[in-house]
Amino acid sequence: MMDDLVIGEKVVVVGGRYDGESGTIVGSTPQRVKVRIPRIGEKKLMPSSIQLLSAASNGVLAETWESNWVDKDGGGGGPDDVTPPSTTDSLDRQPSQAFTDRSGLVFFVAIVLLSAVSMTGFTPSIPRGHATSSLPERGNVTAFFNECLKTGKGCVITSGSIISFAKDKVTSTRLKNDLVIEKNPKLETCVGLESLTKIDGDINVVRNAVLRSLEGLQKVESLGDDINIVGNPKLVQIQHLSGLKGGLPGDINLHNNPTLESLAGLGGITHVAGDFKVTDLEAIRDLSGIDALGLVGGAVRITGNDKLQTLTGAKIESIGSGFVISENPVLQEIRLDALKTVGGALLILHNAALKTINFRALREVYSLALVNNNALVDTSGFQLLETVTGTMLIKGNAALPDLKMNGTVSETSDFKRLKHVGKDLRIVDNAELSELGFMSLITVDGSLEVVSNPTLASVAGFLALESVRGDVLLQNNPRLSSVGFPKLQQIGGNLTIEGCESLDSLDGLGRLREVGGNLFIAENENLLSLAGLGGLESIRGEIVIGRNPHLTNVDALKSSLKCHGGVHGFDRDQESDFMPELWLTSLPRC
To answer: Which long-range contacts (CB under 8 A, 24 or more apart) does 366-369 make?
Structure first.
């Protein structure tokens, strides 16, 4: 059996107080208690005993009611109310005559079945339907905890008013399942738990109103699963987790601890098998304190940290899943020089002050998105990136001036080694982007889209691109005057050139041989000639050319084209539009 230590506020009250001197319970008043049994999937937890502990003004009642309880419906599929056979949805018990009226230790405890704790990104485990250990004849909550650890039975301690563990320190060194410290409005530290060296499950520290530190946990050297530290408004530091060394089998989740200033305490952890999340920490300024972390098997999420200024210095080399950096309003610099691979999506989104991104060792990522980082001006730190397995999106970065090309593959070129994009490459709505080029890019297995970049003048830097399996879309780039795809031979989908008012020729498409979809050329006010399409031999879809008021020369296309899929949608409203139906209809269909 596994055991959980849960320090929280799940309470069943039946009255009375515990006299620590005599080891008896006094002043008990019978109470009617409806016991609700939580479900795990379609099964209910069916205990053979439940221990009820509760407090009057200055003590605690401890009473065990033993019975082989059964589901009223007999199969685990009925109502959640489970009662002893002799009662109807209630528990009426008279106190023992041995209870006497003496003063005792003040604490507020109830031992019940642990229901699931529900909160964003965090669900502690539920004990698997076993009896709880009985409160020792003499002692307090700490003694009871020690006894639970020795017996190995289910140990569930829940309370809303624990102040400290310091008076009678825990003596056990190992906890066989989770340590959950939850919703204790007066608990300031964990002093008293210093003997613990091994926890087989999680450390869950959740919603403790005045908890300042984790002092008391400094000797914990081994952890079996996650660290979840969530919603502790006064927690300033976690340095007392510094005994943890090497690998962590689960997640690290730090969420909504508004006064936490540092990650110091995690410096001995070298790898995390699960996720690493730092979210909604209002006081943190950097990620110093995770100096040894080199590997994350799951995802990394750095989001909503209001004062985070830099994301630098971490030695993380590999992330097994996604990496999200988003909504950090004063973050100015990302520099993770050791990071080589990201197995999922690398998403850098909505960081209003971000200026510089530097991943100098990054070679491979599943997908990449740089979106709505309005101060971003420097992306030169992607110089070793060779492969984006999925989609690459650069969108809405209002200050990004260029993706440097400089005419050659130079040391300062952005994405200078990028050779392959496995899905779409999309450059969309970057207000100051003037130059664009990925000079080593050879293949795009999805579509290439350059859309709505109002100051973009040149797309002449795709010097090595040979094939695009999807569409090529150049649309609504009003200042675009230069197109350069000197090695592009095949487009598997549509070729669309639309709304590029400054474009007067298509000279950069001279080696294009085949368009697998439609050819759509429209609303390019200054386009004069299709001379750049002189090598195009087949258009397997339809040809649509219209509303290009100055287009008069299509000789190159006329001389090279051998087949097409049809002619559709020519605009006859403008006299200056070119109407090539006669010669096109004489060509065979592809």
So the answer is: 366/322, 366/342, 366/390, 367/391, 367/392, 367/393, 367/423, 368/392, 368/393, 369/345, 369/393, 369/394, 369/395
> Which backbone phi and psi does 369 adopt, to 5 degrees?
-135, 125
Q: Left (φ > 0), alpha (ψ -120 to 50) or beta: where does 545 sit?
A: beta
**Cβ 223 vs Cβ 248: under 8 Å:** yes
**pLDDT per residue over 5-45, tens digit each?**
444 333 332 333 434 344 433 443 333 333 333 333 333 33
How buried is 450 (Cβ within 10 angstroms: 0-12 exposed, 13-18 middle, 19+ buried)? buried
Please tell me the distance from the alpha carbon of residue 552 to that of residue 443, in angstroms, as a whole number. Answer: 33
Task: Please write the tens of the pLDDT for every residue from 472-507.
Answer: 999 999 999 999 899 999 999 999 999 999 999 998
Give strand pairing partners of 81.
36
State the Rg of the chain over Cα: 34
CA 517/CA 471 separation, integer angstroms? 8
- DSSP symbols for 219-241: T--EESS-EEEE--TT----GGG
Residues 478-485: contacts with CB under 8 Å, at least 24 apart: 478/454, 478/502, 479/454, 479/455, 480/450, 480/453, 480/456, 481/457, 482/457, 482/458, 482/508, 483/459, 483/507, 483/508, 483/509, 483/532, 484/437, 484/458, 484/459, 484/460, 484/508, 485/509, 485/511, 485/512
Mean pLDDT calculated for residue range 346-355: 97
Distance CA 395, CA 429 (A): 6
Size (the chain), residues: 590
Q: How far apart are CA 404 and CA 243, in angstroms?
A: 47
> Looking at per-residue confidence, does 301 or 529 come out higher?
301
> Residue 567's beta-bridge partner residues?
543
- 206-243 per-residue burial string, b: 16 or more CB within 10 A, e: under 16: bbbeebebbbbbbebebbbbbbbbbbbeebebbbbbbb
Bridge-based pairing state of the strands 61-66 and 49-54: antiparallel
CA neighbor of 337 nearest in space, from 363, 369, 312, 368: 312
Where is pLDDT greater, at 193 or 454?
A: 454
The pTM is what?
Answer: 0.75
pLDDT of residue 353: 98
DSSP string, 148-201: HHHH-SB---B-S----S-SS-----EESS-EEEE--TT----TT-TT--EESS
